[in-house]
Amino acid sequence: MKKHYQRTLLTVCFCFAFISSFAQVKVYKGNSSYSSDVICNLKDNKVYKGNSSYTSDILCRIDDNKVYKNNSTYRSDILFTIRDGKVYRGTSSYSSDVVFTVKDGKLYKGNSSYTSDIFANKKGLKVYKDNSSYSSDVDFTLSDNVTIEQFVAIWYAVKYCW
Questions:
Q1: Neighbouring C-beta atoms of residue 101, cutoff 10 Å
Q2: Is 14 helix (H, G, I), strand (E, B) or coil?
Q3: Which domains does the chain have, with CATH numbers?
Q4: What would the pLDDT profile of 27-46 be if each residue is shown by its tens digit?
Q5: Residue 6 has what pLDDT?
Q6: Short-list 99, 100, 80, CA closest to 90
Q7: Whole-angstrom Cα distance, residue 62 to residue 152?
Q8: Which pTM value belongs to this model?
Q9: H-helix or E-strand containing 118?
Q10: How many CB atoms lie under 10 A from the CB of residue 118?
Q11: Contacts from 101-106 at CB under 8 Å and sequence distance 24+?
Q12: 3-state DSSP of 18-30
């Protein structure tokens, strides 16, 4: 009985690992969900151009709380460091290097938390311009939920690489 339980558990773990290796988040232009409107995709903490999965098409990669340029592992290629909802330029931890703050699904300029400084907001899988919730103001749509680090990498890819 114990051996059967161990085999079943091992099989379940293997299946889960196999299925999760195919997990991919697609990012669509505006309010779309058409494959022809894919801006980029996230797989294995790497953001790729469009529907690609080629190494040469990696726009950025996530490692721990850092977003790196392309597929780099060099400290000099760190684009952003994320700490406590704050997105810092490079490896900085200075408040003057906060690019934006993420709080309660809203993106604020710099270190701000004022409503007038909201430049984007996320509701469900939709990312809207400014503080809007109108369907015409959807900037991009995600196919699944992501971590804050993954969101920052996707934001970079959408805003600076597309």
A1: 18
A2: helix
A3: 25-161 (2.40.160)
A4: 999 999 999 999 999 999 99
A5: 47
A6: 80
A7: 9
A8: 0.85
A9: strand 118-123
A10: 20
A11: 102/148, 102/151, 102/152, 106/131
A12: HHHCCCCEEEEEC
